[in-house]
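User: I'll paste a sequence; please echo it back and then give the predicted structure.

Assistant: Echoing your sequence first, then the prediction.
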Amino acid sequence: MTRTILVTAAGISALVLAFTGCSGGMSSMGTATSLYEQLGGKEAISKLANNLVSSSIKDPRLSGLLGNVNATTASSKVSDQMCSALGGGCQAPYSDQQLTSAANRLTPEQKSAVSDNFSSSLSSVTSNPAVKEAVTKALGSKMGGILGAVL
């Protein structure tokens, strides 16, 4: 009987420690702050979107697509889409289906250009490698669709 009580107490203690350890680890990058906040909030997202749209408009690999795009309108939509995807509470202007459809219209070279411009723009907003990696993981595969949707 004493042994059963000790084993049960040890098991409960192990569970408490496991859950306490998990919540402590999550607060540094997970639930305590969103990727949106870790990146720098509205100002950083706006800068990221503006840099991305601007560099993409200037990119010869994308010039055929973005030649007639209003940069201000496009930057605003890209910013809202990224804000939503990173947990900033913004309303995403495009659905996942619209993003997939837009991404499918891009050639491999155009997708590569978007990826290059996104990476460069992200570097201009943060130098924190952990934040860069997390934002790239969250947005990287969607960027072709996000930028393609504003066309």
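The two ends are 72 Å apart (CA to CA). The first helix runs from residue 2 to 29.
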